[in-house]
Design a protein that fits this description.
Largest sheet: 8 strands, parallel
Helix content: 25-40%
Strand content: 5-15%
Radius of gyration: 18 Å
Number of helices: 9
Keywords: Hydrolase
CATH superfamily: Metal-dependent hydrolases
Region (Disordered): 134-154
Pfam families: Amidohydro_2
Order of helices and strands: EHEHEHEHEHEHEHEHH
CATH class: Alpha Beta
Shape: globular
Family: Belongs to the metallo-dependent hydrolases superfamily.
Domain Amidohydrolase-related: 18-310
Distance between the termini: 43 Å
Number of domains: 1
Length: 312
């Protein structure tokens, strides 16, 4: 499949909102192996060659023209893993120059021997809010199993996770829904750490059985109070982002977690492979139109401000 840039959606919106999941990268200066020669196998949107270009605040300003968020949270962009603090230093300098992003979620490999030093290095930056790490997971639902090395069950990985609270850091989790039973145990064992589930739990299988399994997994995770969800990453390979596909999933997510634990997130520029920024924001706004004005404001702004500690 070859992705082409989706046509922009005509959408006017001037309410304040926060984008809790854009990425910035500069391929001319910094190392991102997945964008500079390596290929991610089975990338969920198929061909991602269109992402092999710089994406900086000026590019984001172009994509959000007329819809600009009041604050943004940069999520680590898979900078080469040698020294992940280098990415935080670069993004912090970017923010000083351009006013974006407001806050940073960096990377740490939680089962690495130097995790304490890496977390301390990140913590030296005032914009730092948390860590994203992609633990070992199962690629397919039918292969899901517990106890893999590097997974959320791994005691060495959990020792790294236990250090987040000491630094006042939250944790961004990207994992398929069939591994969220591990996440439920994790947050129960570490109640002082806020976990933020990325990309709506990755409900890629929209068959009735796939959605039923996703709902069960999300409901189990939602029983734990220290979990929030970013409504993002809902594109499907080979087809444009539509409200018909995604509004029901967004509403299910909010119904499961509540209007005080979900937030808007664009996943730009990655989701530019499936939709314009306006399309994604318009779909979210349509989905939350059934809620009260105060709940809509929370979903668009206040929840992300609280969870990522984005003081005015």
């Amino acid at each position: 499949m070859t992705n082409t840039a989706p046509e922009p959606t005509a959408f006017a919106f001037d309410a304040p909102y926060i984008d809790a999941h854009p990425h910035f990268w500069d391929l001319t200066r910094n190392p991102y192996p997945w964008l500079q020669g390596e290929t991610v196998p089975n990338f969920r949107y198929g061909d991602y060659s269109a992402l092999r270009r710089n994406y900086l605040p000026a590019d984001y300003a172009r994509d959000t023209a007329g819809l600009a968020p009041v604050k943004t949270v940069h999520i680590e962009a898979e900078w080469a893993r040698g020294d992940p603090v280098d990415e935080t230093a670069w993004v912090d300098a970017l923010a000083q120059e351009h006013g974006r992003p407001t806050a940073i979620v960096g990377h740490a490999q939680l089962d690495r021997g130097d995790v304490d030093a890496v977390l301390a290095g990140h913590a030296a930056y005032g914009r730092m809010r948390g860590i994203r790490n992609k633990p070992a997971t199962s690629a397919r639902r039918e292969d899901a199993r517990r106890g893999q090395a590097g997974s959320m069950d791994d005691e060495r990985w959990r020792r790294g996770y236990s250090q987040l609270a000491r630094h006042g850091m939250s944790f961004d989790l990207q994992a398929p829904w069939w591994n969220l039973d591990q996440a439920a145990d994790l947050v129960r064992d570490f109640p002082a750490t806020q976990l933020i589930l990325n990309h709506t739990g990755l409900p890629a299988d929209r068959s009735p059985s796939g959605l039923a399994g996703w709902r069960r997994a999300m409901e189990k995770l939602a029983r734990e109070p220290n979990v929030a969800v970013k409504v993002s990453g809902l594109g499907l390979p080979g087809r444009p982002w539509t409200g018909a596909d995604n509004v029901p999933v967004i509403r299910d997510t909010i119904s499961i977690f509540g209007a005080d634990r979900c937030m808007f997130a664009s996943n730009y520029p990655v989701d530019s492979l499936v939709a314009s920024y306006a399309t994604i924001l318009a779909g979210f706004v349509e989905a939350i139109s059934i809620y009260t004005p105060s709940q809509q404001h929370a979903l668009l702004h206040d929840n992300a401000a609280r969870i990522y500690r984005l003081a005015d």
